[in-house]
Q: What sequence folds into this?
């Protein structure tokens, strides 16, 4: 069980990935984004998650540089993730996309590079590119995002290297138990995007009742639930008080009954696309 903001999950290849980080989905490139990244680093965050399609890698890079300068920590103490977009899924295209992301972020390497969506007929060649990057030491870890069990099994028919991470939509309304159990069995770390269901759970009466008993916010209860379920989580915020509040979840533990109560809220409801039926 993680005890503080810098605690890490050890991926099956030995790379250490922070349990908690900052997501920047739908945050526009600009001063607000840069400041959010800098503030997160200042307050102890060591993981930043972005993607090519977010259009904000340059701002994330500026925020990282500002955060490193202000805190004095080294690049090696950060865990930076980006993702290859659907239009660039292919061997040469994915290699080029990685170089573009590095250039925009102004980094020498990424800690984690993911295939963003399982586009049929394209993700295997993209994975071959990620394997090349990994074998060449250009990236510390590689993984997938939004992959269901059958996508991973199909990928592994031809792959040399198993994904180290699967980042999926994950929150109390979408617990993805089968995917979670499968990833545990395979030694693949599950990671949650949209852990707060894009804000839709922040007035949930059941979670509010639990939050009131622990004297915590609804967001803190949900994020703590993620960690106690063994799921890495990357909530998004640009406001300093929220960035601090989201990470203030290491001074309490949800009891077994409350964990089961939260688990029981699952209704297989998505706010994002269905990985088996999407069109980008």
A:
């Amino acid at each position: 069980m993680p005890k503080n903001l810098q605690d890490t999950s050890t991926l099956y290849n030995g790379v250490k990935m922070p349990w908690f980080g900052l997501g920047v989905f739908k945050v526009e490139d600009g001063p607000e984004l840069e400041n959010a990244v800098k503030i997160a680093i200042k307050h102890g965050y060591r993981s930043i998650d972005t993607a090519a399609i977010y259009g904000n890698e340059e701002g994330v890079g500026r925020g990282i540089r500002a955060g490193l300068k202000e805190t004095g920590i080294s690049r090696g103490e950060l865990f930076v993730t980006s993702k290859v977009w659907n239009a660039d899924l292919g061997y040469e295209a994915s290699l080029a996309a990685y170089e573009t992301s590095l250039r925009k972020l102004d980094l020498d390497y990424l800690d984690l590079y993911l295939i963003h969506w399982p586009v049929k007929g394209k993700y295997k060649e993209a994975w071959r590119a990620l394997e090349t990057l990994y074998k060449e030491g250009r990236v510390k870890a590689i993984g997938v995002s939004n992959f269901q069990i059958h996508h991973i099994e199909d990928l592994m028919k031809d792959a040399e290297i198993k994904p180290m991470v699967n980042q999926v939509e994950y929150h109390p309304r979408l617990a993805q138990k089968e995917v979670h159990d499968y990833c545990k069995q395979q030694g693949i770390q599950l990671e949650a995007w949209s852990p707060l269901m894009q804000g839709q759970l922040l007035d949930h009466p059941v979670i509010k009742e639990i939050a009131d008993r622990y004297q915590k916010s609804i967001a803190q209860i949900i994020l703590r639930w993620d960690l106690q379920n063994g799921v890495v989580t990357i909530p998004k915020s640009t406001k300093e008080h929220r960035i601090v509040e989201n990470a203030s979840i290491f001074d309490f533990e949800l009891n077994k009954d409350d964990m089961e109560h939260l688990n029981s809220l699952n209704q297989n409801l998505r706010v994002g696309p269905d990985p088996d039926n999407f069109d980008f």
About this structure: The chain has one domain: 8-201+232-238. The first strand starts at residue 8 and ends at 10. Residues 8-201+232-238 form a domain with the TIM Barrel fold (CATH 3.20.20.100). Residues 57-71 form the longest helix (15 residues).
